[in-house]
């Protein structure tokens, strides 16, 4: 997979994105385990990427990353040995991502591109707006319907059949009870 830096030029508008939480040190040379909090760990932890500690001024430069036994291991220029690596345990890492940077895959979307989209029923009639994306084992779109109710719709292709952020809408499949209670 190609490695790219997430360092945007300073004049480009950016958004702060959580990318990972530092875990325990690995080995004696300062390698760190990281719990990725991004769908693009290879992109966000590429060599020469600049990261920051969330809520603090500390900055870090990734000098290398690799996968080992299903875990992401990274090296930071600022953690040259095991003691320095252990001192970073629990740190939340953020990256400044250009607001116009597309996700790595064509069928992926940033939360910020989905929140606010008009939700349309299968026939194109407006039904509400996406207010939030909930992440977990199954990503869910939180939708505020035109009646004021909140509904959760699994963010899967069979249910969310069209997404057009440029046009400002997403269209749902023709499934009974998706946006309304069946006993209404």
Short characterization:
With 184 residues, the chain is mainly beta. It has 3 helices and 12 strands, in the order ββαβββαβαββββββ.
Offer a few descriptive terms.
six-stranded antiparallel beta barrel, 2 domains, mainly beta, 42% strand, Ribosome maturation factor RimM, cytoplasm, 3 helices, Elongation Factor Tu (Ef-tu), domain 3, ribosome biogenesis, chaperone, rRNA processing
* CATH level-four homologous superfamily name of the largest domain: RimM
Largest β sheet strand count, sense and barrel closure: 6 strands, antiparallel, barrel
CATH architecture of the largest domain: Beta Barrel
Distance separating the two termini = 50 Å
Uncertain parts? 1-9
- What multimeric state do the chains show? single chain
Strand content: 35-45%
Question: What is the radius of gyration computed over CA atoms, rounded to a whole number of angstroms?
Answer: 20 Å
Q: Tell me, rounded to a whole number, the average pLDDT.
A: 87
Total helices: the number is 3
CATH topology of the largest domain: Elongation Factor Tu (Ef-tu), domain 3
The helicity comes to under 10%
Please report the total strand number as a whole number. Answer: 12
Number of domains: 2
Lateral strand order in the biggest sheet = 1-2-5-4-3-6
Main location: cytoplasm
Subunit structure: Binds ribosomal protein uS19.
Subcellular location: Cytoplasm
Pfam families: PRC_RimM (PF24986), RimM (PF01782)
